Structures are given as structure tokens and as C-alpha cells.
Amino acid sequence: MFNKILIANRGEIALRILRACRTLGIGAVVAYSEADRDSLAAQLADEAICIGPSDAKRSYLSAPAVVSAAIVTGCDAIHPGYGFLSEDAGFADVVRAHDLTFIGPSSEVLERFASKEATRRLLAAHGLTTIPGSGMLRDEGHALEEAERIGYPVLLKPSAGGGGKGMRLVRTARELEAAFKVSRSEAQAGFGDDSLYMEKYLDDNRHVEIQIAVDRFGNYIHMFDRDCSVQRRHQKLIEETPSPSLTPAQRLDLAECAARAIAEAGYENLGTLEFLIDTKGEAYFIEINCRIQVEHPITELTTGIDMVAMQIAIAAGEPLPVTQADIRQNGHAIEFRILAEDPAKDFRPQAGQIGAYLAPGGPGVRLDSHLYPGYEVPTYYDSLLGKLSVWAPDRPQAIARADAALREMLVDGLTTNIELHRAILANQVFIDGKVTTNLLDRVGSAPFVAGAR
Amino acid sequence: MAVTKPSDRQPADDAPEIGARALSDHARSLRDHEAINRLADDLLPALIARLSSSGLGEIEVREGAWKARLRKPAARAVATPAAPHPAAVPVRPASHRDERDRHPASAPAEEEMGVVVAKSPAVGVYSPRRDLVLGMRVRSGDRIGFVDVLGVQQEVLSPIDGVIGSSLAEAGEAVEYGQELVRIEVGERSASADHPTPGQKASTAVGSAS
């Protein structure tokens, strides 16, 4: 096992990793940017080190800064969290070249799964159904040809992208001509790689993902599913498990197929396979996330597994601590992403100083947040303020507990989406478990908020 | 931060400054000491924090016979990219006479001095330039050392024209981004200030004034 881990991330996930380290009795150093000097993780850590200025390119995204910080603080491993350098094969390589361990898949594995388009072909070869799509698009003419073959509407996607960034829904050839150039330059700017591909867009789909883990010895498990259908512009807002759109048999079948396929394809460490479920209940693999995910707490609540601890153990070369037979999916859990965004003002990100602050409590309530009264929310990074997760024996009780917790939660000083969450919870489509990924974008958030009053 | 010789000269507009002026002619030396210690230890850090976090351009606080005024520079005067707060905070005491009473060993008037700190440009291992010595004169942009980041040397540059003061980090020490490395004393100085004596050194530090 490791002696000391450098936490190369910020916000709530830095705190989550710090907690896992403490639970495991491993030392931890929080690496922070200048804007995060007063962050909770940096304050709670036994050791913290400033790695660069506020601009993430020169701090959290700077491989030399992160690796140098790990070396001078005597760490033997680096946890990248999510986002930033978490799925960067080049970074994983640099980490290893300095005799440190990257907590995540090896650089070879990251390389193999770096291209979404190649990953789809690889997993199709291992038995997963993939969504009809194109290969890498050479140019505009090629894109038009492929769109014609697949059939509109199509989704234009950056191959190196993630988190829904840079994706574009295109319904006609004319739209495609305009979108292609924009997407290409966005992909170049956002991910340093302008390759695009496209896939068929399913209008009324649900987003379901399977959590898997594979150790160095090829042992693998799945930790069932998460439903992330409540989205706004391809950004997840609410996640729950188990998915209300799958029958128990469908769920088990999908989870087992996914785990087997990814293990056979040579994956290692924690991972998530994302699927779109169409109106007929058919599941299409779309992409894999080679990292700990934002929404991991709901899987922890329903399986009782500390996934960050498991991830660290796998990276340290230990065998999986559990077998599939040990894992049960118990009850129902829902997570709400508490964002510093104003739903009334086109979800514009908010910055400011937290005034009064109250974290909700009660049975089955968990809050992963780096907020505290007086904390200055910096403008440099994403708008995630925290994640409220609730657990209950069944879905209706989970919804009731969630509403009570959201009512209790107080974040003064800036506008958040807490009220929008309550409005979605009160909506009949959500109560019926029938939200599709396009719902919020189609109807807008205003009717939800208005309907809840 | 530093106590400097009094001067009738107006401080440069682009430098952060604190003006502290005795309002009473009867202020006694002891009370001055107390006031200046309180300024340095309690008031200034709080004021700097307040000024930095607020949109205000200037803050003035009165304490007994003293008042302290902090003014934000119109444009950032700080030369290192790292500095989150004003790096130079010279304190100008009340009058020539008061100042000489407190620091009999200090240099004559007609100079204005502060301290700017050279900071680390990166996280890594610090090495000062071999010939770096106390009292050495440097120009803005002069290399005064480097920080080794995975074998690549990132230069530590003097942010300002001045004279090398005390070192705040040892050779071979692991340093973080923005860490204070070397104090550089700045300002228009008389010839004697080019070769500081221990007595003069003491006069530049608020903490050692009492």
C-alpha cells in the first residue's frame, strides 16, 4: 500500500479523496492552486502545497507542477480525481517515469480507451451493442455522407471530449455544415484534439451507466447501474440507482455483459460504461469513463463499498477486496449536483462569498461538499458546490428524504439550483421515473419551477 | 513589511503604501512603540486582508495618536506574477525626530525604503545563485536563483531594483509556488545604505523595532 498520496484536484473530490486516505491510514498532501489557498481540503489536510496560479493550465492541468509537488513532498502516488489530468495517458506516463503510481488505469489502458470511436469498435468486438455511428470524420463532405447513411438527427462529438462538452445535436444537412467547423475548433480548444465523430441521436433516450472495477489480475466486478437521465445540455443534474427504466433482469444482464466485455478488453481500475436506453428498452454502449465519477456516492450508498478506497487498493496492486457474490444492490439512492448556477438567468455560473450555510442531515443523507461559511467561490473552475445524496429502502422514500434534505439545505451568498432540484422532484414525469435526457432542454426549467409552486 | 526613514517625499503612486502619522506632538516614544507593534502584528495583516477582499481603493484606521492608511496601487506594482497581496508594505512613521529616537543607529533621512520579496515561480527545489550575498545590488529581472522542476530550471528573478536582504528559503529546500524566497530592499538610498550594517538591517524590520 502507499505511504503518502498527492491529491491533484480541488473542491469536493479533493475532500473525498482526503477522507479515503485518512480511512486507509495513508498520508495525504493536497495540491492546490492560488485560488484554492483557502479551500476546505487544503485547510483540513495535514499537508498542502501550492502548485501554481489560479489558471488551471498552470496548476491542476500542469503535469510538471503536479509531479514535482508529489516528489518534493515525498509522495509515492498521485490521485487525479475527475476532470483535469484524470484520463490523460501522457500524464500517467510521466507519473510512472518518476517512479510514482498514478491512481487510475495505466497509461497503456488510458491510451487504448482514449478514442471514443475506437473504444466503441473494441467493445463491439467484445459483444456490446453500440449506437450506430461514424468513424473519425475526415472533413465536412465525409460528415454529410455519414449523417445521410446513419439518418438524422445525429450527435456530433469530439473524440477526445468528456462531460458533454463540445457535443452538438444536428437535425439537418444544413445545420451540420455550420456545426462541423464550430465543433472542430471547440474540440481543438477544449481538448487539444479536433477529431470528431458522430452517432445517431435518440430523441427520447435514457442515460444509464454501469460501474465496474477490474484489478491487475483480471478479476472483475460490477457495482450495478446509475441512471443519469436528468440532464441539462448534456450535463448531469440528478443521478439515481437503480435505474427506474430497467427491470431487474435487464439491469443484471447489462451489468454482467458490460463487466465481462471491459475486462476482456484489458481494462484496469475503476471505470464506468455509459449506455443510452431507447424507448424499446434497447441499450447502446456510447463511451467509457476511466476515472472515479462525480456520481459515485449513490453506488457507495447502495452497495456499501468505499469506491475511492477500492480504487487506491487496485492501483497499489492489491486484488479486489470483494467478489461479485459479495455485492448486493440495497435500497435506492439519488444524488443532486448542487451548482452555483442561476436557473432564472440561463444557468449563468455564480461566484461570490458563502454567507450562512447549513448542511442537511437525517437518516440516509450524505453531503459531499467543500463549502463553509465565509468561503469565497472562485470563478476559475466549474460550478459544482457539492453533491447531496440520499438513501432510502425504496424510491418513493428516497424522493421524500431528498425533498426534506433540499428544503433544509441553506447556501446563502450566491444563487444555486437547489429550488430547481425540488421542482424536478415534485414533477410527475420524475416521480413516474420517465425522465429522458432531452426533457429539461425541450421544456426548459421554468415550467418545472412554476409547476412546483 | 518595513519601517522606513521618514520623508517629506510623496510615495510613488504605483506602490502600495501605508502612511502612519503622529497626530500629537506629545506622543511619547513608549506609546509609539506600542502603537507600531500593534500596527505590525494585528492591524496591518487584517487591513491588507480587508483591502484585498474588498473593492475599496483605500482604508484608513485611527488608533490613539496614530493613523494608518492603506492604498491599493492603481496598477499592480507587484513584479512577481505570484503575489496575491501587495508585496511591499513600507511603513512611514510620523516625523524625523520620532524615527531617530527609536533607531539611533539608523541611516540619516532623505531615503525611502521598502522590501519586495522574490517568490518562487514553481513548485520544486530551490537553489540561490552561487554568488548571492547580503547587500548585493540587483536590477529588476536579474536572476537570483532557480527552482528545479523535474530537472528543468525555472528562474527566480528579482522583481525590482534593489539590494539583496535576508533569505527566506535555504539552498536545496523544497518550495511551493509563490513561496517567499529572498527579501529585496528597495528605494532611493544614500550611499551608506549600499552596505547595510546589522543595525540598519534591524531598522528595516518592524518585528525587530521594539
How would you explain this protein's 3D organization?
- The complex is a heterodimer of chains A (453) and B (210).
- In chain A, α12 (395-408) runs antiparallel to α13 and α13 crosses α16 (446-452).
- Chain A has three domains: 4-103, Rossmann fold, CATH 3.40.50.20; 132-200, ATP-grasp fold, A domain (Dna Ligase, domain 1), CATH 3.30.1490; 206-452, 2-Layer Sandwich (D-amino Acid Aminotransferase, Chain A, domain 1), CATH 3.30.470.20.
- In chain A, strands 13-12-9-10-11-14-21-19 form an eight-stranded antiparallel sheet, with helices on both faces.
- Chain A is built from 16 helices and 22 strands.
- By secondary structure, chain A is of the alpha+beta class.
- The termini of chain A are far apart.
- The radius of gyration of chain A is 21 Å and the shape is globular.
- Chain A has helices at residues 11-24, 40-44, 63-72, 89-97, 107-112, 116-125, 140-150, 173-191, 248-264, 296-303, 307-315, 395-408, 418-426, 428-431, 439-443, 446-452; strands at residues 4-7, 27-33, 47-52, 77-79, 101-102, 154-158, 168-170, 196-200, 206-214, 220-232, 235-241, 269-277, 283-289, 332-339, 341-342, 348-349, 352-353, 357-358, 365-369, 376-377, 384-392, 410-411.
- By secondary structure, chain B is α+β, with helices and mostly antiparallel strands.
- Chain B is built from three helices and 13 strands.
- Mean pLDDT of chain B is 62; it is low at 1-25, 53-57, 73-112 and 190-210.
- At the A-B interface, β3 and α3 of A face β12 of B.
Overview in brief:
Chain A is α+β, with helices and mostly antiparallel strands.
Please tag this protein with its features.
heterodimer, A: 453 residues, alpha+beta, Rossmann fold, Dna Ligase, domain 1, D-amino Acid Aminotransferase, Chain A, domain 1, 8-stranded antiparallel sheet, 22 strands, globular, B: 210 residues, OB fold (Dihydrolipoamide Acetyltransferase, E2P), 5-stranded mixed sheet, 4-stranded antiparallel sheet, 3 helices, elongated, disordered N terminus, disordered C terminus
